[in-house]
Amino acid sequence: MTFYFLGDDNMFLLSKINISTPLLHISSGKFEAGANWKHKHMFHDGNFEIIIVIKGTLFLKVDGSKIIVEAGDVFSLPPFHNLEGYQDSPTGTQYFWIHFFNHPNGLKVYNLKAQDNLKIENMFTKTTCMLPLKFSLPNTDKSFILSNQLLDVVRDSYFTSLSIDYLLTELIIQLSNDYFKTLAQEEISRKDARISLIKSWIQANLSESLRVTDVANKFELNSKYLVRFFKNHTNETIIQYINRLKIQKSIELLVETNLPIKQISSLAYFSDAKQFMKDFKKYTNLTPSKYRYAYTRKFLDSSNFDPEVPIDRNPL
């Protein structure tokens, strides 16, 4: 996900919207850009605007900061900001647009200096929605359906405006829920990427003397935090992972070479042959010698089978 920052102070704009009572719909619609069109200049004097791009691209400028909004993106602009297009959009660009009022004290805008997914996730409550200046929908179906339903209700002129306000509030909840999902998924992806990087480094630097502190120092992490982080995401400790890599190395050498067991233990980065024997049996339930015999025999036996010779299913 891309986080957008505004102004000279490099601040991330995040809106906290109170939904304990329905939001107040002002106007809404679906727009399609013609040739040589760009968004006109507007100043949002007290009203909030949502743009959901259906197709094409919007080139917007908020208080001088440029933002590109593409198909599947949601643009959420709180009150008291200048908005204008800085470049023509492709012909046929379509988007939903919605203007609404928050209730008194029903909106708080945060200017965060940095991206902090966990902090933002903790801002969500049963009566508050969180929306950034821009984010990408993980799935557009529900938001597009609700947007079309909102426009349909507006056209039908219900006897009470609450029908529109409740549907608008439902749409805001849906958008906020989609944003929450992107935060959670990004955090999972970020952690997965870090685990992958740690594993790759361990594989590349596997040695007899490799310790947890070496890994922690490489990634500038506290050793206790690293052990906990790694175990929570892999279900094994770093030491278990290192030992498993060593055992896998020894298995390759046992099956593919005729080297002595003691030499294999050294080549697999074990400092002590007795410890190697103990760890090997723990992981495979066999001693290295029995493992070599069993799997070498299996390989030799299977090599006698010729896949090109058909099997006679009705031997005489």
UniProtKB/TrEMBL annotation:
A Gene Ontology molecular function term of the record: sequence-specific DNA binding
One Pfam short name: HTH_18
SUPFAM superfamilies: Homeodomain-like, Regulatory protein AraC
InterPro entries for the chain: Cupin_2, Homeodomain-like_sf, HTH-like, HTH_AraC, RmlC-like_jellyroll
Residue stretches making up the HTH araC/xylS-type domain: 196-294
Keywords: DNA-binding, Transcription, Transcription regulation
Gene3D superfamilies hit by this protein: Homeodomain-like (1.10.10.60), Jelly Rolls (2.60.120.10)
Name the UniProt record assigns to this protein: AraC family transcriptional regulator
Source taxonomy: Bacteria, Bacillati, Bacillota, Bacilli, Lactobacillales
